[in-house]
């Protein structure tokens, strides 16, 4: 594009997609049999098409469709106008409920979640129009590759009433090691993370130790999704000294994480603390510098039907159906 003329949106295609999700276990239940996503395609009068991707629950799809009609004719570079038009749509159709995996911790607004796939698609178009990667539009790439970690889950062989998947059951250390072996051999992962908070802590510690024996050089991470007490977290952290690269969200809350951080030898990581601006100011003076380091993970779903992202407020920042388990009977205090 060289003449500075607007690049007009002519059409928007929204395609819901359902793909199978194994019976993966986490602290609040099991993944549902299908994961729902939607693909947003924005078409322009120059023949360029941009791609975005987002949630696909029914309410979210209705909002996406409404926005799709609202932005026909918009210049593909007008992302601020996109935001304003999405705000108008949400004001008209409503913004409560929907958007996402049940039980996910969500601090973004409905407008943000609806804007996102369209904004990404417009950036895709802009990059194609000027012949530059989207990373250049956002300030430039700072690395050429990003390492991925194998992400192990305890799992059932199958969802109830369905045939076992090809990965089979994984409920003990040997099965977790076998799952890791297959992931490392097939995909070349150089680090391994286990989604914990499923089995009693001592079993998960044994699983990590088994992984260490099988993979002596792979960094290991454990994420119980804030389901342990601080006492259990400290005991587990100390038991895994020299074994874990980091322990992720062992216990709920900034204060709880700070208490654990003071007592365990490894760094903590989190994607459940300090996820909203109103969590910053009151904590700033007392937040320990080593309590939280950023990490990026894909979220795990919650199988509790009554739990919705709308009820997970920034101040609560926890799925309301999440409960803290205390393993007092099986775990020496
Ligand atoms: Mg996590």
Automatic annotation (TrEMBL):
Segments forming domain Mandelate racemase/muconate lactonizing enzyme C-terminal: 173-267
Catalytic activity line of the entry: D-glucarate = 5-dehydro-4-deoxy-D-glucarate + H2O
GO molecular function: glucarate dehydratase activity
EC number: 4.2.1.40
Region (Disordered): 284-303
Alphabetical list of InterPro entries matching this protein: DgoD-like (IPR034593), Enolase-like_C_sf (IPR036849), Enolase-like_N (IPR029017), Enolase_C-like (IPR029065), Mandelate_racemase_C (IPR013342), Mandelate_racemase_N_dom (IPR013341)
Low complexity bias spans: 286-303
Superkingdom as given in the UniProt entry: Bacteria
A Pfam family: MR_MLE_N
PANTHER family: D-GALACTONATE DEHYDRATASE-RELATED, GLUCARATE DEHYDRATASE
Protein name as it appears in the record: glucarate dehydratase
Taxonomic classification: Bacteria, Bacillati, Actinomycetota, Actinomycetes, Kitasatosporales
């Amino acid at each position: 594009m060289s003449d500075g003329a607007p690049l007009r949106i002519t059409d928007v295609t929204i395609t819901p997609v359902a793909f199978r999700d194994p019976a993966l276990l986490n602290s609040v239940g099991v993944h549902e049999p299908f994961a729902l996503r939607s693909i947003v395609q924005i078409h322009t009068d120059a023949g360029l098409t941009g791609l975005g991707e987002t949630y696909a629950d029914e309410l979210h799809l209705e909002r996406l469709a409404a926005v799709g009609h609202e932005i026909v004719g918009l210049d593909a570079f007008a992302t601020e106008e996109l935001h304003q038009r999405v705000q108008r749509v949400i004001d008209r159709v409503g913004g409560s409920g929907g958007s996402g995996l049940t039980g996910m911790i969500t601090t973004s607004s409905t407008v943000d979640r609806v804007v996102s796939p369209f904004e990404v698609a417009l950036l895709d178009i802009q990059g194609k129009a000027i012949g530059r990667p989207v990373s250049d539009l956002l300030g430039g790439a700072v690395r050429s590759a990003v390492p991925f970690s194998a992400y192990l889950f305890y799992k059932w062989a199958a969802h109830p009433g369905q045939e076992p998947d090809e990965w089979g059951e994984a409920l003990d250390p040997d099965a977790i090691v076998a799952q890791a072996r297959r992931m490392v051999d097939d995909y070349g992962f150089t680090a391994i993370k286990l989604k914990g908070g499923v089995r009693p802590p001592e079993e998960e510690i044994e699983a990590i130790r088994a992984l260490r024996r099988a993979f002596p050089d792979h960094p290991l991470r454990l994420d119980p999704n804030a389901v342990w007490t601080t006492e259990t977290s400290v005991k587990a952290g100390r038991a895994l000294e020299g074994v874990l690269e980091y322990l992720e969200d062992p216990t709920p809350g900034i204060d709880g994480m700070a208490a654990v951080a003071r007592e365990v030898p490894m760094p903590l990581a989190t994607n459940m603390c300090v996820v909203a601006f109103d969590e910053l100011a009151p904590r700033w003076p007392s937040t320990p510098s080593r309590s939280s380091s950023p990490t990026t993970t894909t979220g795990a779903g919650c199988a509790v039907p009554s739990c919705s992202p709308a009820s997970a407020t920034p101040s609560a920042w926890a799925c309301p159906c999440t409960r803290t388990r205390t393993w007092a009977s099986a775990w020496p205090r």
